[in-house]
Amino acid sequence: MTGSLARRVAAEAVGTGLLVVVAVGSGIQATQLSQDAGVRLLACSLAAVFGLGVLITLLGPVSGGHLNPAVTLSAWYADRRRSTGPTLREVAAYIPAQMAGAIGGAVLADAMFARPLVKLSTHERSAGHLWLGEVVATAGLILLVLGLQRTGRARLVPAAVAAYIGSAYWFTSSTSFANPALTIGRVVTDTAAGIAPASVAPFVAAQLLGAGLGLGAATLLFGRPAHTGDDNPATAARTEPASL
After folding, report:
1. What is the DSSP string of the chain?
2. CB of 124 within 8 A of CB of 160?
3. Which candidate, 74, 53, 52, 68, places its Cα nearest to that of 13?
4. Is 21 within 8 Å of 193 (Cβ atoms)?
5. In this structure, are residues 67 and 19 in contact, taking their beta carbons and an 8 Å threshold?
6. Burial per residue of 8-39, b for 16 or more beta-carbon CB atoms within 10 angstroms, e otherwise
């Protein structure tokens, strides 16, 4: 692994880990401060908006700020015929780093709140309407990212993705995980943000289906990517920015 690739992989691991810290930590804090479900959801969605925006802005120039295997796979597939997207080698390095970072982030969040460091979640999330919520959330995320890139507005991705995920907390039944790594990381925390191991496979399958639908929608609405310049600072790293 080259030094440059090692930095990008480290950025993906650290960034995904911090994203899970935001999700799990805000869930624990909100549960401790209020018994009102609406207030807790508002607190968690605000934390997601600010945390996600900061992480993509900070790490985008290093790795593209994917922080999400669905985004990494979509970026590779969308730009596989050009030289601007991640290569298969980068995909193979990014995804394990994102998974490991997510698990580490859940452990760190639990440690900060003096909870068991690794305790499998008992929070079952297994129902068709929840899977549909994940399909919608992930499809919208991929459509947003690719749409902004293909219309020359990639610099808006950090704010736009943060705003989208914040709103998706409210308009999806699943509260918008939209991220296979984040889903796997939440398995090891038995908190309000957790997800039981048995619920993970359908969630991830729904997210990957959503990513495919988002790719198709982006092609339908914006056409296939042309080999043109991009205002994204991550282009030098041959990656595409996005997250969650």
Report:
1. --HHHHHHHHHHHHHHHHHHHHHHHHHHHHHHH---HHHHHHHHHHHHHHHHHHHHHHHHHHH----SHHHHHHHHHHTTTSSSSPPHHHHHHHHHHHHHHHHHHHHHHHHHTT--SS---------HHHHHHHHHHHHHHHHHHHHHHHTT-GGGHHHHHHHHHHHHHHHSTT-----HHHHHHGGG--STT---HHHHHHHHHHHHHHHHHHHHHHHHHH-SPPS-----GGGGGT------
2. no
3. 68
4. no
5. yes
6. bbebbbbbbbbbbbbbbbbbbbbbeeeeeeee
Determine the Cα–Cα distance for residues 97 and 181; give it in Å rounded to an integer. Answer: 9
Task: Encode pLDDT of 181-212 as tens digits.
Answer: 999 999 999 999 999 999 999 999 999 999 99
Lookup result for tokens 């919208």: 140
The C-alpha atoms of residue 24 and residue 192 are separated, in whole angstroms, by 8
Q: Residue 3: its pLDDT value, please? A: 61
Give pTM, 2 decimals: 0.89
CA distance 41 to 212: 28
Q: What are phi and psi of 146, to 5 degrees?
A: -65, -35
Amino acid present at 238: R
Structure tokens at 2: 């080259």
Q: What confidence tens digit (pLDDT) does each residue in 61-107 have?
A: 999 999 999 999 999 999 887 777 889 999 999 999 999 999 999 99
